[in-house]
Amino acid sequence: MIPNWTLTKYIGSRFLVGIIVTLVVCSLLIFMIDILELLRVAGKRGSVPIMTLVVIALMRLPAYTEFLFGFAVLVGSIGALLHLNRKSELAVMRAGGMSVWQFLMPGILVAFLIGLAGMTVFNPLAAAGRADSEKKFAKAFGQDGNLLKAQSGGSWLRQDGSDGESVIGAVAASNRGLTLTGVMVFAYDRQGHFTERIDAATANLEEGYWQLKNAWVSRLGQEPEKFDSYLVSTYLSPDQIQDALGTVFSVSFWELPGLIEVTEKAKLSAEKLKIQYEVLWTRPLLCVAMVLLAATVSLRSFRSGGIQTMVATGMFGGFGFFLISEISRQFGVAGLTPAWAAVWLPVVFLLVICSTVLLHQEDG
User: Fold this and answer.
1) Nearest-CA neighbor of 203 among 225, 171, 158?
2) In this structure, are 136 and 201 located in the same domain?
3) How far apart (Å, rounded) are the C-alpha atoms in residues 314 and 289?
C-alpha cells in the first residue's frame, strides 16, 4: 500500500511542526540565557545599550542553535508519533495495511530535508552571524571583554619577525584569525629585550607584517605615542594564523574544502576542519537516525502502558549517542582515527541499531 498524497502531507506536517516547535523553544531558552550572560558582562565592563546586547545575542543565536538540530528532530519526532498514537491514528493506518516504514517515510523525508537545509543554508548563515557578533561584541565591550580567551582557551600568540619576537593578544578574532580586534602587543628586540607595548583597536595581517590601526605605543622612559597606523613584523603566514586563532564554527560549509586544502599544503593540522566538514555532511543522515530512534520508543499502544518509560529510554539513548559521538570526534581531532570514521561510524551504527529494533518490534 502506497500512502496517498493527503496522508503523506498530514504525517509530514506533524513531524515538521514538532521539530520546529522544539527548535523554537530551545532557541528561546538559549537566547534568554545568553542575554542574561551579556547583561552580567555589561554590568562589570560598563554601560552597554540593551538593544546592542539583543542584537549580539540574535546574531550568535544561529550558531548556538545549530548544535541542537539532532536533538530537535529526536524530540519533535517523539512528540509527533505520540500525538498520532494517542489519537489512535497509527492504529487506523496499521489496520489499513500500512507498515511502520510507510508511515515513517514522510517523517524521514522531512528530517532529511531539514538536515540538508541545515548543512547548506543554515550553517553559512550561522557562521557569518557568529563572525559579525564577535566584532560587535569587541566594539561594545572594549579590550577587557577578552572574548577570544573565553571561546578558544587562549588569547595570546607568540610570533617572530624581522624586528624580533613579539607576543600578540586580541579580544576577538574574525575572518578566520586574519583580523583582530582589541589588540595588545609586547615587542622584543633580536636580543630578547623588551622594547615596547602596543595597544590598538584593530590589526590586519598583511604580507610579512601586522597593520595596526589607532595604535598607542608605550616605550620605557617615554610618553605613550599615538599612531593612526603602526606595523609589527611577523613571519607567520595567513594559514598559520588561521590554524592558531581561527574557529571552525566561523567557517561555512562551502568554505571548508578550500580551507582544508590550503591548510594541508601549509603542512598544518587540518583535523578540526575535516571533523567539522564531516559533521556537516552527516547532518541529514543524523536527522534520519533521530526519527528512527524516536520510532523505537513511540509506537507502543497507550493501552499497553509503559509509554513514559519508553520515551525516557529514548531520550537517554539520544543523550548517550551524542556523548559517544563527541568522544569519537575528539579521537578524530587528536588524529587517533580518520576524520570520516570518527564522525560517520557512530551515525551509521545508530541507524543499524534502530532499524534492527524496529524490524524486531514490527516484523518479529
Assistant:
1) 171
2) no
3) 12
Give the three cell numbers for residue 236.
607567520
Burial class (CB in 10 A: 0-12, 13-18, 19+), 228: exposed
Indicate the pLDDT class of residue 1, thresholds 50, 70 and 90.
very low
- How far is 17 from 35, CA to CA, in rounded Å? 27
Report, as an integer, the average pLDDT of 167-175: 70
- For the chain, report the end-to-end CA distance as a whole number of angstroms: 20
pLDDT digits (tens, 9 = 90+) for 28-83: 999 999 999 888 888 776 677 889 889 999 998 998 898 889 999 999 999 999 88
Residue 319 or 88, more confident: 319
- Please write the tens of the pLDDT for every residue from 304-331: 666 777 788 888 888 899 999 989 988 8
Please write the tens of the pLDDT for every residue from 254-306.
878 876 776 566 455 678 888 888 999 999 999 999 999 999 888 776 666 66
Strands (DSSP E) contained in the chain are: 156-159, 166-174, 179-188, 194-206, 209-219, 225-233
Question: Residue 228: phi, psi to the nearest 5?
Answer: -65, -35
Domain that holds residue 68: 5-142+269-363
89 Cβ contact partners less than 8 Å away, ≥ 6 residues apart: none
Query: Do residues 219 and 287 share a domain?
Result: no
Regarding whether 137 and 277 lie in a shared domain, the answer is: yes
95 and 73: one domain?
yes
Matching residue, cell 563527541: 326
Spatial CA neighbour of 15 closest among 287, 286, 285, 280: 287
**Residues 198 and 324 grouped into a single domain:** no
Q: Given the C-alpha cell 575528539, which residue does it identify?
A: 330
Contact 179, 204 (CB under 8 A): yes
Which pLDDT score is estimated for 268?
A: 54
Q: How many domains does the chain have?
A: 2
**Phi, psi dihedrals of residue 112, rounded to the nearest 5°:** -65, -45
The answer, yes or no, to whether residue 199 has pLDDT greater than 60, is yes
277, with CB counted inside 10 A (0-12, 13-18, 19+), is buried
Distances (CA, A) of 7 to 10, 11, 21, 82, 90: 5, 6, 21, 17, 12
225-233 and 209-219: which strand pairing? antiparallel
